[in-house]
């Protein structure tokens, strides 16, 4: 999450918003550890004017920000999506759910979520505070990327030990959530079968030159 925030902070400083942040757009480089990630798919990214709001509705169910659904948004939408991703990574379940896209969108507009699921029993209050400050309906009170990077959970995260039993439980929920989402499964299959590795890209570059 720290690396994701760093990438988004960099983009926002250049007045670029991603607009479609989701787990499928976070990749691991081949032969690298889990702390080496890449943010991909800037097909929906957009250059923005900080003084103006955008009306175009775009994004993915579960991760789309409520202000996008309302047709008036700015770069803050990316931080909402990161809040959703964090919630899912820690619990394996989405904060806003429904049996259809319409129900999911309705839940997102309301912005009401909780940490009642058993997966959150071992999650720190600091982590919950981090999520809460990202999933804030009021964009003026939502953390910016730079502010989120300074949050205690991010700064001290490397010092916190992980409870393996809780991690396994969250992973099982995440697998179930993934299994029930046909579109996401199709997307992951596309990514794994079509995107090249760094080595392949370098070879293609040499061939092109």
Total helical elements: 10
Rg calc? 17 Å
Number of domains: 1
Arithmetic mean pLDDT: 87
CATH topology-level fold name: Transferase(Phosphotransferase), domain 1
N-to-C CA distance: 36 Å
Largest sheet: 2 strands, antiparallel
Shape: globular
Structural class: mainly alpha
Looking at CATH, the homologous superfamily is: Transferase(Phosphotransferase) domain 1
Unreliably modeled segments: none
By DSSP, the count of extended strands is 4
Percent of residues in helices comes to 40-55%
The H/E string reads HEEEEHHHHHHHHH
Strand order, largest beta sheet: 1-4
CATH architectural group: Orthogonal Bundle
Please write out the topology.
Layout: H1 2-13, E1 16-17, E2 26-28, E3 37-39, E4 46-47, H2 66-69, H3 76-91, H4 101-110, H5 125-134, H6 145-149, H7 152-155, H8 164-179, H9 182-194, H10 198-208
Antiparallel strand pairs: 1-4, 2-3
Helix pairs in contact: 3-5, 3-8
Give a brief outline of the structure.
This protein has one domain (2-208): Transferase(Phosphotransferase) domain 1 (Transferase(Phosphotransferase), domain 1), CATH 1.10.510. The chain is 48% helix and 5% strand. The chain contains ten helices and four strands.
What do these coordinates show?
By secondary structure, the chain is mainly alpha-helical. It has a single domain, classed as Orthogonal Bundle (Transferase(Phosphotransferase), domain 1), CATH 1.10.510.10. It is 48% helix and 5% strand. It has ten helices and four strands, in the order αββββααααααααα. The strands form two sheets. Strands 1-4 form a two-stranded antiparallel ribbon. Helix 3 runs antiparallel to helix 5 and helix 3 crosses helix 8. The model has no long low-confidence stretch (mean pLDDT 87).
């Amino acid at each position: 999450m720290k690396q994701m925030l760093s990438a988004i902070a960099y983009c926002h400083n250049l007045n670029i918003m991603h607009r479609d942040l989701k787990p499928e757009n976070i990749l691991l480089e081949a032969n690298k550890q889990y702390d080496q990630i890449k943010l991909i798919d800037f097909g929906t990214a957009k250059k923005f004017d900080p003084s103006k709001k955008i009306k175009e509705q775009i994004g993915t169910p579960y991760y789309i920000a409520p202000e996008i659904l309302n047709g008036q948004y700015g770069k803050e939408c990316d931080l909402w999506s990161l809040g959703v991703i964090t919630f899912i990574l820690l619990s394996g379940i989405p904060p806003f759910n429904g049996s259809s896209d319409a129900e999911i969108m309705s839940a997102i507009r309301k912005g009401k979520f909780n940490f009642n699921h058993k997966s959150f029993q071992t999650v720190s209050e600091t982590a919950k505070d981090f999520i809460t400050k990202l999933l804030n309906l009021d964009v003026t009170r939502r953390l910016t990327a730079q502010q989120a990077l300074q949050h205690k959970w991010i700064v001290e995260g490397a010092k916190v030990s992980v409870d393996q039993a809780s991690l396994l439980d969250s992973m099982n929920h995440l697998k179930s959530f993934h299994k029930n989402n046909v579109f996401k499964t199709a997307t992951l299959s596309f990514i794994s079968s079509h995107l090249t590795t760094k080595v392949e890209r370098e070879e293609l570059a040499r061939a092109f030159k």
